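Worked example 3 (structure in, sequence out).
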């Protein structure tokens, strides 16, 4: 069947009229860089001086991009999405912990999330970040192959045990873990640890996924290396394919430290790498389970076309498409309606703790060319269709 991302009736049927109008107001505001930047600065000031802004944030940007403050609230949002065959990657959106006690305390939280997800019909994925379980400085040192002190070696061993506890719980409960990419200068320990977890837990089915950021010059090649390793060692490769999240930071660091930028020179190259990475995965579905994370409609349609050409049915258990909650509903819900495995990345956590995530969403919608305009035009099309 032909798939279209223009069907707004399907895209927004989970939103009532009030929610649709609120989304319209929000994306209209984010269409203005001035309003967005002013809002971010005012939020910073309000939080600094402990002004009572939580209810304003919660009823606007938080409601648009987050599933709730608790895992139970997020599950209710997940249940609504599930009515339309959209599954969820339940993402605990709290960032910036730096102490060993915090890292230790995070482990039972994630095990609880895994066990909770296993009790629900609609939560097959839990994303994690290695920086939620290890000091950035330690990852940096491991990445650069510097000799570790005994204390650092002990700390690194504890990181491995934390991740192993989480991945073991996931495999036992048949929940999939998406291990996020990090900055290029701490990525190697993430890759190495994820490879170990895949080798240990992906023997019979795919439970652990690594993330391949295609705006990096070397990650298409690394995906192929990872695949060859998986074939050689006899396990399934879990591949989450994304464009990437740290471009400006990466370029600035490379320029200031005088090494070649690890980022592709332009968007066209990144798009080509992305589509090639997805195509590679779709060629090897006997050994790869792929999580296609993108807001790019063209990339999504190319993947669908390739599946159709190969005669692979939409509900193939080795292929997932995913977008962030609150964005690109025209993609997610139309994919689900056509029978594909469609997924929403659903962050949750206390409002004050997910502020960094929300600010990034606001900035991203302002800076990504055409993103806000596209969201707005689709919402306006649906408002017109509903005669509101």
């Amino acid at each position: 069947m032909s798939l279209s991302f223009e069907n707004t009736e399907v895209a927004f049927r989970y939103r009532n009229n009030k929610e649709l109008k609120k989304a319209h107001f929000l994306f209209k505001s984010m269409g203005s860089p001035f309003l967005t930047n002013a809002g971010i600065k005012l939020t910073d000031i309000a939080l600094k001086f402990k002004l009572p802004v939580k209810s304003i944030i919660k009823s606007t940007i938080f409601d648009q991009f987050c599933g709730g403050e608790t895992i139970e609230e997020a599950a209710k949002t997940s249940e609504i999405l599930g009515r339309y065959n959209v599954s969820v990657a339940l993402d605990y959106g709290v960032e910036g912990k730096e102490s060993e006690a915090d890292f230790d305390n995070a482990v039972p939280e994630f095990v609880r999330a895994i066990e909770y997800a296993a009790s629900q019909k609609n939560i097959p994925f839990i994303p994690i970040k290695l920086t939620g379980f290890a000091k950035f400085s330690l990852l940096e040192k491991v990445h650069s192959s510097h000799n570790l002190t005994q204390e650092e070696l002990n700390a690194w061993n504890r990181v491995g045990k934390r991740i192993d506890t989480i991945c073991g719980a996931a495999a036992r409960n048949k929940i999939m873990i998406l291990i996020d990419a990090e900055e290029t200068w701490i990525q190697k320990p993430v890759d190495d640890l994820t490879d170990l977890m895949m080798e240990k837990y992906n023997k019979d089915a795919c439970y652990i996924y690594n993330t391949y950021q295609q705006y990096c010059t070397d990650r298409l090649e690394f995906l192929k290396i990872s695949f060859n390793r998986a074939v050689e060692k006899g396990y399934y490769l879990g591949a989450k394919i994304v464009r990437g999240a740290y471009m400006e930071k990466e370029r600035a660091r490379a320029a200031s430290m005088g090494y070649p930028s690890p980022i592709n020179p332009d968007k066209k190259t990144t798009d080509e790498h992305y589509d090639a990475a997805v195509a590679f995965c779709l060629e090897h579905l006997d050994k790869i389970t792929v999580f296609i994370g993108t807001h790019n409609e063209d990339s999504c349609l190319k993947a669908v076309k390739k599946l159709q050409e190969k005669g692979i049915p939409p509900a193939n258990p080795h292929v997932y498409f995913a977008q962030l909650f609150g964005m690109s509903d025209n993609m997610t819900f139309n994919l689900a309606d056509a029978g594909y495995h469609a997924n929403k990345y659903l962050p949750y956590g206390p409002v004050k703790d997910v502020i960094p995530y929300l600010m990034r969403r606001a900035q991203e919608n302002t800076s990504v060319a055409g993103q806000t305009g596209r969201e707005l035009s689709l919402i306006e099309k649906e408002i017109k269709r509903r005669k509101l």
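Notes: The two ends are 31 Å apart (CA to CA). The CA atoms of residues 53 and 363 lie 19 Å apart.
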